[in-house]
Amino acid sequence: MKVVLRNPRREVEVAGNRRVKDVLRELAILPETVLVIRGDDLVTADQVVADTDVIELRPVMSGGRA
Amino acid sequence: MKCRKCGGAAALELRRHNAAFCAPDFIEFFRNQVREAIRRHRMLTRDEPVLVAVSGGKDSLALWDVLAEDGYRTTGLYLDLGIFDYSVESRAKCEAFAAARGLPLVVRRVADEVGAPVPVIKQVTRRPPCSGCGLSKRYLMNRAALEEGIPVVATGHNLDDEAATLFGSVLHWQTESLARQSPALASSHPKLVRKVKPLYRLSERETAAYAFLRRIDYIVEECPFAVGATSIAHKEALNRLEDASPGAKHNFLFGFLDKARPAFERAEEVDLRECARCGQVTTGTLCAFCKLADQVKRAG
Q: B226 and A44 in contact by Cβ < 8 A?
């Protein structure tokens, strides 16, 4: 399955047919730091994503005070 | 995972609340948290106008959306920092948001007010870019509100922002910052407007989810100068704690506000006067903004 990452925008291929939380763990991304987006919907960490799915992992962190 | 309220399929899990919500129930949860913040700290009333500082990012546009939907008399304030394509794009997002909803938007350019845009200020001061930028924003928000006759500025600071600021202040025991950190600051001088942070009860993942589910077109790209900022490192550290112990950020911030802040507030009484140059409020003779503008002028 295809995973779209942001800042900078890039795409990686990972194995599908498993839970979102397993995909996040493989990519070493903390669930608290991203929205998981499939099409027009948000996906929770316990949902299974198919091998044919495209998901976006959109970072939620903003700001920058020194 | 099922929605806590309706039992339907959940769109978002909130581990710190041990809950999950479908999209409509999450939107209602989010708005209720904002209402609770406003009620608890008497931030706003519907009888007076509020200036909403917007950057084009998820937090400030989500805030503007909630306040406008809830019947507050909002005007947006966009400060154009002059940070290359980032500022061009973020301004366009704010203008599109305002136009689509028929809401008024005031735009001020930092370059007009300080004498140079943020990238030049960064070079001139040789301080971290967020330093001169933050100083300019705080000053210009207050002055714009005074000029527009609006008694209160609302900013999109969220739970993560506030927890990271608190973390930084505690690491260095900056007692003045600890005394000032609050979801609502009253006006302590006729030339200082009130400042409120109605999103302080909501994490940045929650504000991002709200913005996404409300189909708000916000700028996802980060400010190019934020890379490597100390506050980002603090947020990352807190997110690791949160992952191991959901609710850690919430408990850190809310425990401070409830139990520790009053002690720091009592200890830090400051003497306020007006800047000899611009007349805005300062603790010295010349305010930090005028000193910054002088520095820019000397370098130019």
A: no
CB contact under 8 A, A63 and B134: no
Q: Does A12 touch chain B (CB under 8 A)?
A: no
Question: B72-104 b/e with 16+ CB inside 10 Å = b?
Answer: bbbbbbbbbbbbeebbeebbebbbebbeeeebe
Does residue A66 carry a pLDDT above 50?
no
- In this complex, the residue of A7, A32, A45 whose CB is nearest that of residue B239 is A32
Confidence of residue A63 (pLDDT cuts 50, 70, 90): low
Number of Cβ within a 10 Å radius of residue B214 = 16
Q: How confident is the model at residue A7 (pLDDT cuts 50, 70, 90)?
A: confident
Q: Which of A24, A32, A34 would best serve as a mutation to test chain B binding (most B beta carbons within 10 A)? A: A32
Question: Cβ of B225 and A64 within 8 Å?
Answer: yes
Q: What are the C-alpha distances in Å from B42 to residues A65, B35, B74, B170, B197?
A: 27, 10, 17, 27, 11
B19-21 and A10-13 beta bridge pairing: unpaired
Distance from CA of A37 to the nearest CA of B (A): 9
- Subunit contact B131:A66, Cβ cutoff 8 A: yes
- Mean pLDDT confidence for B179-201: 96
In angstroms, the separation between the Cα of residue A22 and the nearest Cα of chain B is: 15
Q: ipTM of this predicted complex?
A: 0.95
> For A9-40, b where at least 16 C-beta lie within 10 A, e where not — what string?
eeeeeeebeeebeebbeeeebebbbbbbbeee
